[in-house]
Known about the structure:
Number of domains: 2
Strand content: 5-15%
Low-confidence stretches: 197-215, 435-456
Helix content: 55-70%
Region (Disordered): 429-456
Number of strands: 7
Radius of gyration: 31 Å
Largest sheet: 7 strands, mixed
Distance between the termini: 56 Å
Number of helices: 15
Shape: flat
Mean pLDDT: 82
Oligomer: single chain
Amino acid sequence: MAYHDAAKYIEDMNPGFVNAVGEECLRTKSIIRTALPTLDGLPGKVEWRSDAADLYERRLKETIDLAEGLHDGFDKAGQAVTAYARAQVQAQTLVADGVTAEGQLHALIAPIVATQSLQVRFSDPLRQWNDLRSTTGVTDWLIELGVHDEIEKVRAEADRLWHRATAAYDDALRIETEAREDAVGQLTAAYRLLPDFLASSPLSAKIVDETPGLEDIHGKYHVGPPTAPDLTFDDDFPYDPNAAPTPGDYASWAKWKAKLRGGQLLRVDLDDATAAYAHYMDGTGTDLRVDYEEAYREDANIRLAVDNEILSAQKEAERIYRETGQTGFQMTGNPSSVTALGGYPATENWQKALGDHTVYGTSDVVVNGNQITMKIKVHAEDMYNFNANAADIATGAPDNENGRFSTLGWAKGFPTHGQVERTVTWTIGESSDVSADTGPERNAPGEDRVDRRNNG
């Protein structure tokens, strides 16, 4: 017996996207199938008068086996994924029917529920009726005594709606679970059918480099699963175990500790900055997640940079679709500096918290007719530290003072990361308003830096 909360995840599924992935597998299978007759007809057509004759025949057979393995693997995977998409649609239909029945039950028993305890009144309709239709104790009997006749009047219809809703949720869960387990099994079998590619050899690299079309070099985004770039950051003040603190170092440390406490108490507009600076001074060096949604809302230049990255991803999605014909794919963009995309952060809070950081996008793209839907995450990555001979923009405070703490081992720089997630839909060839959805509101510590302008 299932209630709505157990089946709610089914409502959030996207069968259209799942089906697009399955259809793409089947399309790939069809492309491979067109090449198989040609490959099958090659053996025996070429006569070699060389020691390489046997090697040629062996490699040709391996090529045919490889193509057949790819064909069978994509066929099995495509069928498994599209079958799961159909099961998702069926399960969502059942959940919708359960919700309808539950809504009718709610309207039917609402006058009775209004006379019951707060616990009953704040339950969902299925649990409400489950409580009302049976007496579980003396207290329950006393509470329901005054509405016993009303309960009996609606019992038959309420029972029918209750059973209809719970049966719909049960069936939806069963169908989705069985289909998912079957799809996983089928995909595992499909994976085993795929040939084992070893592309790390110098010969493989030479083939890729010299064969047009094997590598996408045309744009900023490239087809493939989300892949974090390999970023490197400078460290102008590395830890020196031989560095000995001076009386001036102790005085400087006390001064900056006092500045931090003052900023935390008096500069609420620098809340992210003070949190990051406090993390620097705690010396742990652990990663810090910044609230990049807040940065997007508060800083015009960061917002412009994110919007420009999304617009770039839209153009790249159209290009990849136009060049490959794929209707469902993932893509990852090359990293860019936020200053290049929108300008150096405009607010003191985000100048100190992030400065000129790196952004890149990872996207899921689905094409339906002339409409493209793209779910994109714009990632922000940086290293919070201090730059030799630099200074804070707002106060002019030299970086060298705070960098000295890192050299002594009293403080430590750390990686920062955050993201903005958006879903945009547009007609091919037309731009989209990427600023309309500002995303969920968050309040994460460690987004801004109180005394620092840059961390790169």
